[in-house]
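Quick log. Single chain, no ligands specified.
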Amino acid sequence: MSDKNIYTGKSIQIFEGVEAVKKRPAMYLGSTDEDGFHHLVWEIIDNALDEYLAGYCKQINVVLGADNFVSIEDDGRGIPVDIHPKTRLPTIETVFTYLHAGGKFDGETYFVSGGLHGVGSTVVNAMASYLKVTVYAKDKMYTLEFVNGRKTSSDLKESINPFPNKKQGTKVEFKPNSELFDDFYQFRKNLIEERLQQTAYINSGVKINFSDERINYQKKYFYRNGILSFLEKIVGATSNLQNQHTKVIDSQTRVENIKVHFAFRYTNTNNLRILSFCNNIRTIDGGAHEKGFKMAVTRVLKKIMKKYRYYDETKDKLETNDIINGIHLILVVLHPDPKFAGQTKTKLVNSAMIGLTSTFVGDELERFLLENPSEREQICKKVLQSMRLRIELDNKTKEFKVKNSYFESSMLPGKLADCASKKPEETELFIVEGDSAGGSAKLGRNRNFQAILPLKGKIINSEKVLINKLFANQEICDLISSVGFILKNNTAECGEHKQINCEVCGNKSFEHKRLRYHKIVIMTDADVDGSHIAVLLLTFMYRHIPGLIENNYVYLAQPPLYKFKVGKKVDYLYNEESLQEKIAETTTRYEIQRYKGLGEMNPGQLWETTMDPKRRTLRQVTVEDAQAADDIIQLLMGKEVEGRRNFILKNAKFVRDLDI
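-> predicted structure:
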């Protein structure tokens, strides 16, 4: 027997602190893609917000610098610098080198905390090529530096606090180690700015200053009206504020150290929009608090509508989707002991929050409906309208399916250029616009694992048509058939309880086994028309095949906008800013080619720039991306004329490049 087959204690490897993170970074960040890259920033911001929630922080400064450096500073108490009793190291060093080391466990240092697991600072240090932490404590200033997760030769430095006002707090500066991520990423200004704005909305007392030194950009966020202003913002994105169905229903309570704050209104749209948070962390996948809210609204509206005889329960069957249709909600929970699904904390799983939220929201909603008869009538009519529309659409869908067996057929569309591999986990479907781009893509692809589906122009706008017309559209049918997905009653249906988006088991029955490709890539031109087509596709998927996006199968390709040639050297540039930088740094003669469309690129160029897995850039589409696409389509192409007019008047001045 060879030595390598001997299994002893020596076979067991032990990784501690930063080494454990480096070995399995996805366990702590959720992924090592662009989301995980930005998650480093969220971890440090969450620590600063914990100081705010504890009552010691009033201001947070976030600065994006050159060469991927980022700085996050708060004016809280500052991380302790005394010697930790267990590690015998300065506490500040312990926090950045030991997993599960933090002040979040005793229930006294922090009343509520987003950084529950105490691993955030260590993870950031482990994933950074350089990190410096500075603590200001009255007359003293303390600094500690790390390179690749390890402390530099110098120990904790102590010096005089250089600021006349003797400020205090913590400042963390770091640069991510690109070698530990899937690709080379840069911090996205818009993504970070959106997160900071949300944070300021749900924490009405904190001031957040944001700077991007790369483009000399500064912005301040401070909202006195908190989530009410937040609700106004998200409602305004999809609907005319002067024509709402109801007033805002909002309230807050504290029960056994748990705080629940909500604000929602019924809008004149058919969109459910929920933004929920727990301890300042966006719970993208919802959880117990969202479930409790939906249960409360369903229970109370059924009770009220029965009491005032708005419907006959023996004839009409109200479903949860009928009742919550059109609601826009901000839901914020502060919990001393939150339980999340995974380190990235996208879903709250404290089961007790279901009953607590349901009881509180139900009581407040019932009181509101009883005290506001005109609002009650509008809401009940809105629910009835949603129910009748659902029944009508379901009936038309059934009629359509009887007449058209397309959905039940295993036949693939003739325009689909399929790949050789039949293993979904290794195959990719590129959705391209037009025969020209489709031809280049078919010739340039790797036939072993890449399939091409060319679509004819812009797909039908799913915002404006009834479902029977939508699914009679050939391009839509080709897309559904190619992917391998079969629609059920306008959305995924719970296989066990036969309810849409079943509240009992939470199962949306997304049929993974039917999928023919695990990467569905929208590849459109790098211009206004291309963006429009991508938005239409995302809106259709978000509305009618949500499982594709929720289960992370949809991507956006990033084709170049320019070809920049100096002599024989060719660079592909993906935006106007990169072009201007290239021009500024080039002293010799150069040639510029602007790609109006993918069809202008020969197959080799398309493969090299956009399709080659070793060199391309793919952006994974999130539920938030799809929601944003759905919002803009509803605003610009829906029935609300006044909202569309206001948007155009407000934003027309920003248009710089309009393709005609």
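The domain at 18-221 is CATH 3.30.565.10 (Heat Shock Protein 90).
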